[in-house]
Amino acid sequence: RVGVTRIPVVVHVVFNTAAQNLSEDQITSQIDVLNEDFRALNPDIDQVPPVWKPLVADSRIEFHLATQDPQGQPTDGITRTQTQAAKFNIRTNTVKHASSGGHDAWPADRYLNLWVCPRIFDPADPNEILGYAQFPGGPAETDGVVIGHRFFGTTGTASAPFNGGRTATHEVGHWLNLLHIWGDDGQGCNGGDLVADTPNSGGPNFGTPTFPKLSCSNDPDGDMFVNYMDYTDDQGMFMFTKGQVARMEAALDSARSSFNG
Ligand code: ARG
Ligand code: ZN
Ligand code: CA
């Protein structure tokens, strides 16, 4: 892959109350954050601890609201659907189907589908889910990223500490095949993210930890909690690594190659 890959995005706004029918400003604020973060142009990048600065990578991936709909007609890249549902099931993907109160996906080989909805829940988890993504290689009808409206963009209904647009950065990372940096093995030290330059780490980090935060004999530098693929607050995550960018590249060269060229 040479140059920059530009990915057309359709934002499906699925709202119950009028306040959840997000402004165009809130939507473009999210696209702007994606473009900063994936190009390593985010203004907070200087907060990366010096030891990891050499690993910071520009993915050469950019995002823009689609200008043509699936039929080739002009569009602003936003669909708006009022729904009776106040929450959507992460297991059954109800937001991704008009028949269950959501909106059907646009062709997943041509668009990144980004659904924004009132609330996401997991029947097995009492906590609200900020967002979720489908990894490359899954069914087209459910491909894309889903985000709760309060965790989307940097203005409007976006609410602290998840009002920095980083939920979408994290989820689009998954959509491009990135795994969590702690390896999803609970607090264990055997799981990995299949990326060599992110330190082996125990479990997820939350909030805004202080450097260094040690686990899994990863001293002296410890967990890379400033990585977008950890669980820290939006104001505490600033980077993808070179190894992560190589993994996203590999996805763009295979399962997601329809977005190249
Ligand atoms: N819980 C979500 C996931 O596992 C997203 C976490 C996003 N973190 C954030 N600071 N916005 O995919
Ligand atoms: Zn995640
Ligand atoms: Ca681990």
Automatic annotation (TrEMBL):
Keywords: Disulfide bond, Hydrolase, Metal-binding, Metalloprotease, Protease, Signal, Zinc
GO molecular function, one term: metallopeptidase activity
Domain Peptidase M43 pregnancy-associated plasma-A, first and last residues per copy: 103-253
One GO-annotated biological process of the protein: proteolysis
Coiled-coil annotated residue ranges, if any: none
Similarity field: Belongs to the peptidase M43B family.
Name of the protein this chain belongs to: Peptidase M43 pregnancy-associated plasma-A domain-containing protein
Organism whose genome encodes this protein: Streptomyces netropsis (Streptoverticillium netropsis)
